[in-house]
Amino acid sequence: MLEIRDLHATVNGKAILKGLTLTVGAGEVHAIMGPNGAGKSTLAYVLAGRDGYEVTGGDFLVDGRSLLDLAPEDRAQAGLFLAFQYPVEIPGVSNSTFLREAVNAQRRSRGEPDLDALQFVKLARQKMNSLGMTDEMLKRPVNVGFSGGEKKRNEVLQLAILEPKVAVMDETDSGLDVDALRTVARAVNALRAPKRSFLMITHYERLLEEIVPDRVHILADGRIVGSGGPELAREIERTGYAAYAAAAA
């Protein structure tokens, strides 16, 4: 579903990704861990097409289609979703308006008619009920005044409504207490599906206790330097990244 081929990228002229290769199959959840500065968030931003992150080599594909030359909005319409480490606030724009515009942009790209306001609210309530959420969040401006846990739950709601093929979750556990982490993890687990792949980027093993991945990869110095099952995350919790960082040097 997600295939990354020998990806190289720079930020402000500095090489950050240095030949990253990874395949996440349909229905799989893969986790990427690594020390600070390894390139984890850079990978997320490169996939999403953020300005200032220049690809200097390689390619990446979603469902067999290269997205490298597409604009960020076209990548989203092709099925790529990015959950930010620090979700932004959008004052004056309600969640309902924001999500309906996003859904309708996707529908237009597929040649489907827009959802009107009532049709959208019905869809949103169905998704929120399945995730154990109330529709109160729809009335609020996007992320304005939200707690850390509310911002992350709001992103999970976006994921549920947009139904991407590949979801990249950039440090979803950042800023969450234990209860909020478990709430978000339950929602993410509810969205695991045979035709959806997840790439979870995290520093810590605690997230992977709640969202058990199929594979864990260690990123150091811009490359994947180790891979294994969920037990690899537990090993890192015990021993740290020193051995992998040395191997990448």
UniProtKB/TrEMBL annotation:
<dbReference type="InterPro" id="IPR027417">
    <property type="entry name" value="P-loop_NTPase"/>
</dbReference>
<dbReference type="InterPro" id="IPR003439">
    <property type="entry name" value="ABC_transporter-like_ATP-bd"/>
</dbReference>
<dbReference type="InterPro" id="IPR010230">
    <property type="entry name" value="FeS-cluster_ATPase_SufC"/>
</dbReference>
<keyword id="KW-0067">ATP-binding</keyword>
<dbReference type="GO" id="GO:0016887">
    <property type="term" value="F:ATP hydrolysis activity"/>
</dbReference>
<feature type="domain" description="ABC transporter">
    <location>
        <begin position="2"/>
        <end position="246"/>
    </location>
</feature>
<keyword id="KW-0547">Nucleotide-binding</keyword>
<dbReference type="InterPro" id="IPR017871">
    <property type="entry name" value="ABC_transporter-like_CS"/>
</dbReference>
<comment type="similarity">
    <text>Belongs to the ABC transporter superfamily. Ycf16 family.</text>
</comment>
<dbReference type="InterPro" id="IPR003593">
    <property type="entry name" value="AAA+_ATPase"/>
</dbReference>
<dbReference type="GO" id="GO:0005524">
    <property type="term" value="F:ATP binding"/>
</dbReference>
<protein>
    <submittedName>
        <fullName>Component of SufBCD complex, ATP-binding component of ABC superfamily</fullName>
    </submittedName>
</protein>
<dbReference type="Pfam" id="PF00005">
    <property type="entry name" value="ABC_tran"/>
</dbReference>
